[in-house]
Amino acid sequence: MTAGSDAVQDLLPLVFAAPNEALTKAESVLRRRPEPLHASVAHQVIGIWQRDFGDLRLALRHLRRARNWAARAGSADREADVLATLGVALVHSGRTRQGLDALSQGVRRGTGHTRARVLFRRAYCWWVLGHHKEALEDVRRAVPVLRQAGDVIWTARSLTLRATVHLALGAVERAEADFASAEDLWAVTDQEHDKADAVESRGLAAFRSGDVPAALRLLDEAEERYAKLATPTFMLSIRRCEVLMAAGLATEALAEADTAIAELDLIGGQSTRKAELLLAAARAARQADEPATATARAGLAVRLFAGQRRTWWEAHARLVLIGARHAAGKGSRRLVADAAAVAQRLTGLGAPAAPEAYLLAGRIALDLGRAADAEPYLAVAARSRRSGPPLARMTGWAAQALRARAAGSTRGVLEACRRGLDVLDDHRMTLGASELRARATAQGAELAALAQQAALRSGGPRRLLMWSERWRATVLSAPPTRPPADPELLSHMTAYREIAARAEETRMDGRPVPALEREQRRLERAIRSRTLHMRGEAHGDDTRFDVGRLLGQLGDGVRLVELAVVDGRVQVLLCGQGRVRRFEAGLLAAAETEAEHVQAGLRRLAHPGAQARLPLVEAAGRRLEELLLGPAAAHLGDGPVVIVPPGRLHRVPWALLPSLRERVVSVSPSASSWLRARETRPPWGGRKVLVRGPGLATGGAEVTRLAARYSGATVLEHRDASVPRVLAELDGAGLAHIAAHGTFRTDGPMFSSLRMADGPLIVHDFERLGRSPYRIILSCCDTARFATVGADELLGLVTALLPLGTAGVVACSAPVNDEAVVPLMLALHEGLAAGLPLPEALRDARAAMPDDALHRATGWAFTAFGAA
Fold first, then answer.
1. How far apart are the first and last CA of the chain?
2. DSSP E strands: which ranges in 742-835?
3. What is the Cα–Cα distance from 706 to 690, expressed in whole angstroms?
């Protein structure tokens, strides 16, 4: 480049249009021993690049040189501009007083247009420090001057900053107006980094207005823009953490924050950003129920913010620290006082988090038995229930519920919980992805627990049943938003199948597959990202659960057993014969442990020669029955039984329990789900589809024999058993039988799969069905395994099918012997051909098996879900 004055001055806007190009050109200018003015600009450009994308120590070194060269050049405005940049860098390095002094010098030295730019940067530092009133004042003084000068870039920056300050204060509408004005200005510039920052800021605004899918989409778009510029941005990670936590993805938020901290430390980046990332990590760890990690991260953040004189941020970090200590079981009058002091500080700062702090102070006081002390704190927190974003209103309703409980008002508790959960339902239905809907339920776990505790104390089993249903399997209350016909998403899914199939073949050949696995993980991230962007279209089921309707459908012969967990103990709600009875059983934790022992036993019994373990498994089944059913086992009658377990008991093989072993048993995620399945009508024509996937030990032997039984059935095998063809045939079928290897993904339940000829058929694929088969039989391992997420939700193959029109599923919760499965499946279809529903046909199929350990364990591993 030439060393002309205009060309060198153009490097300053270039650093936020094409940062790496600006860095290269600035270094080139310095190699030619430029005049003082040009040297000042070049050093400033390098300093800005290092400040925002590299080593802060190098940034300070270059900016001090830029200041010195500006002084030699005798330009007051040049010196003022460099002082402003230096001041920002000093603040980001934690030297707050020095930074503000440099900025004040810049304001005094600069004139007119230059002074307005300095004011903008001081406003930015006020925002970083949490001094929002001062930030707004400086922007107010800067914007008119910048507009009058026709400075589009700096006007847009100022409007973006003002919008961001408004968001921090909870003024979402003002922020959106400023973001819109700034976006119009950015459209006529080539400031690509600034444009990416504007997209990121719009993502934050979308989040603050309650639109989580839009926030995720905009943050992903910003990340793509930054990636093209090869410029890291840690503010994006901080904002993404906030959105991920609101979506119930706390573990991912913690990983994102920790990764960003490591990268920041590696390059010697801004200490202000490190403190904010530590705070994000602490919040995520607290939400992920890791109080020790939250305490450590929050404690370090408090120290950094205090050293940086960032009162706003320090107060927020102290709030997380106190919450983590409380979660770890620590409670004292001193902790109450600390929480109250933070609440008052946040109120004085105008922070939207103040109600959360008052709620924490009240909750700690209640735990100490000091209801009188808690009341004023809870009363203040409860004010937020009337307005604001959904999570803030839920904070208010939680406070109101705690007030009512302390006052001994069961009615008040239940009303507050109902209103709070209604807010959550409205928020949840804005989410299109079933995964996000499921995880978002965690936000209402406290309200649900308070309601169930109140219902139990009131003594009415019907009331407890209603509240158990209010909170159980809410994600299944409406079909998920169907993934859009997005060419990029479809391309990712096709590529994913191809890569996964190649990786599987390579593993079977005994060769390592690191490159294929990396590409598979990349495609999984891309698919998941596109799916999480979906906005909810379906409305929840407005029909409230009706106990009378349930009892009417059950009649005198069928019993429905709903297991509610209150304070860690299983409460058995036995429904039938026109009434609901309650029995108390064992501890949930003990039942979970016993269920894992049973699963281990079934895995061993899947192999010949394990006959000696059968008595141990049967004994574990007896213990499970005592823990899960208790005295209710003696009151089940002689007819069919429907089990409605909590999510954490989804792996229990119910047919193993002695009182259920010879009985018709089905499982449902909720009583409401069972009612919908019972009332679902089969499709006209009753098409039958038989699918045989590759690599089965028996070659999918039952499919060949079933094809002979069902003349006219569609049989998909070999190359015909491809994912697109299988999905096309499954859509709206009356009965489907799939014999294929199943894989459950604990690390990504939505990628749990059935192996087809061209690769995995995943949960995301099933969600593309217009209507899933009325009945479906999955004769493969692990198809009835789920991930428990949110409050009490399940993600897996079966739960993907139930909201889409499937009324009955037979699936397996454990590894099974492929050869022993064949006779069980043939016997099951004999029952279906005789007109039996799935649960009864499965019961009879078990009874028809040889009475040896292998075949008995195979029968126990399969469960009938639904009511068809």
1. 76
2. 742-743, 753-756, 759-762, 775-778, 787-789, 793-795, 808-812
3. 8
Tell the burial category of 770 from Cβ atoms under 10 Å away from its Cβ (0-12, 13-18, 19+): exposed
Tokens at residue 421, please? 């959960």
Q: Is the pLDDT of residue 633 over 90?
A: yes
3-state secondary structure of 797: helix
Q: How far apart are CA 87 and CA 121, in angstroms?
A: 8
The amino acid present at 309, given as its one-letter code, is: R
Query: How many alpha carbons fall within 13 Å on the CB side of residue 458?
Result: 22
Asked if residues 541 and 475 have their Cβ atoms less than 8 Å apart, the reply is no
Q: Alpha-carbon distance 81 to 344, whole Å?
A: 38
d(CA 610, CA 616): 11
Cα gap 540→517, rounded to integer Å: 38
pLDDT winner (highest mean) among 35-49, 423-437, 515-529? 35-49
Rg of the chain, C-alpha, whole Å: 31
For residue 833, the SS3 value is helix
* Confidence at residue 2, expressed as pLDDT on a 0 to 100 scale: 43
Look at the chain and count its residues.
Answer: 868
Residue reference for tokens 């993404």: 240
- Examine the pLDDT at 318 and tell me if it is beyond 60: yes
Task: Write the DSSP assignment of 60-108 as a string of letters.
Answer: HHHHHHHHHHHHHHT-HHHHHHHHHHHHHHHHHTT-HHHHHHHHHHHHH
Distance, in Å, from the CA atom of 775 to the CA atom of 765, rounded to the nearest integer, reads: 18
Does residue 419 or residue 818 have the better pLDDT?
A: 419
SS3 of residue 478 by DSSP: coil
Could you give the CA distance from residue 55 to residue 268 in angstroms, rounded to a whole number?
Answer: 5
Closest Cα partner for 431 from 207, 170, 201? 207
For strands 641-644 and 665-667, give the pairing: parallel
Cα–Cα nearest to 563, from 637, 411, 452, 421: 452
Q: Determine the pLDDT at residue 441.
A: 80
> Strands 753-756, 808-812: parallel, antiparallel or unpaired by DSSP?
unpaired
Least Cα distance to 854 among 815, 827, 813 occurs for 815
The four Cα atoms 166, 170, 174, 180 give a dihedral, to 10 degrees, of: 80
Cα separation, 404 vs 406, whole angstroms: 5
- Adjacent-strand bridge partners of 777: 737, 810
Q: Do 523 and 495 form a contact (C-beta atoms < 8 A)?
A: yes
Q: Mean pLDDT across the stretch 292-316?
A: 95
Is residue 570 a contact partner of residue 627, using CB atoms and an 8 Å limit? yes
- Confidence at 25, pLDDT banded by 50, 70, 90: very high
For residue 851, the SS3 value is coil
Reduced DSSP (H G I as helix, E B as strand, rest coil) percent helix, strand, coil of the chain, to 5: 65, 10, 25
Which amino acid is present at 524? E
Region at 578 (left for phi over 0; alpha for psi -120 to 50; beta for the rest): left
Residue 33 Rama label (left phi>0; alpha psi -120 to 50; beta): left
Q: Provide the β-strand partners of residue 583.
A: 572
pLDDT (0 to 100) of residue 6: 63
Alpha carbons 247 and 44: distance in angstroms, whole number: 40
Q: Give pLDDT, residue 513.
A: 81
Of 101-115, 170-184, 423-437, the one with minimum mean pLDDT is 423-437
- Distance separating alpha carbons of residues 90 and 192, to the nearest angstrom: 25
Pull the structure tokens for residue 862. 């399969």
* Single-letter residue type at 12: L
pLDDT tier for residue 1 given thresholds of 50, 70 and 90: very low
Task: Please state, in angstroms and rounded to a whole number, the distance separating the CA atoms of residues 569 and 584.
Answer: 8
- 733 is written with which tokens? 């079928």
Quote the mean pLDDT of the chain: 91
H or E element, residue 546: none
Band (508; pLDDT cuts 50, 70, 90): confident
Which residue do the tokens 């039958």 mark? 688
